[in-house]
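Consider this one:
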Amino acid sequence: MTDRMATCRPTKKCSICMNELQNPRILPCIHSFCLACLEHYCQGKQPGDDVPCPECRTEFEIPKDGLAWLTVRTHSHEPELEASQKRDGGQYCGEHTERLRMYCFDCQINVCLMCCVEAHKTHKFESIDVVAKEFAGCIDDEIQELTSRVESLRGVAAQVDVENSKFLDNAQDTEQQIRSRGEETKQHLARLIDRQVNDLLQELQSLKSAAEEEIKSHMDTLHLALAQMESFKTSLSELKSTGSPSDITQAASGLLVGAQELLQTNLTPGEYHAPSYKFAPMNVDDDHVFVGHVVGGEDQDRGNVISYNALQCRRLCYTFLPRDDVYAGAALAVMRCLSVCLSRPWIVLQ
């Protein structure tokens, strides 16, 4: 703050030409420049235009009567005199070298009494002391309003800070709930999957046992027929090779009938195919939502809605879903549906 005030103190050198001030004019930002330097600096500008200060870039308005009507800065090489003039408003007219005692409302500048009679005679003017009091009252009103507004903004800022802290705490709690729910869901799904795997393995074992029994029965039938035919074939071969003509003629009729009966009873079987099974997995894609959703404050009474979007589960979901409270029953309905789906065997017999 001290540095800023130091930069705003009037200097006895013109920062444009870097020489001693000649016929100086002081700007509202308290920087002073030679009148000729200012006129050259503002070349091409018109009265009423806003021009930045050459030093601090604070904008000032060119008076309607020209730059010469800017406040004249008095020269004093004695600091005590300069300070005294500054305290008692020691500013003088550049044209009449009289003290500035009046304020012109039309031009919004301080003028001397001669200026009021000549250039500003049709304007509205008043004593600088009177106008300064009016302006001071307006400044007090603005300060009071700004003070009230600052207090209000500080209150709002404090309330926003409190809400931000509440939000961060809420977000942290919600994150913990999501992680906790995720761990619970993973454990539950793991148990359901383990149960389904065991059910599928048991089903496969039952099918395997039944197939083995079927194959054993088929093999026993084949072995029995094979033993009967081998035995009958041996008897026929022995009769033919060792029997007398009388033995052959006497036994031929019965043997031939027996051979025909065996052939009719034990027809040549077709190619045998053992039972075959394959596993048909359920599709689980990235669209499935097992944990839940993050909902806004207006939906907090409903709770997090847990959804399971598998096509196979939709009908079961509608079956289990309570009609009177959709949101409250959604989580329970889906978990029931999921339990049913995961417990169903999906082994296809070919």
User: Anything to note?
Assistant: The mean pLDDT is 76. Residues 194 and 342 are 9 Å apart (CA to CA).
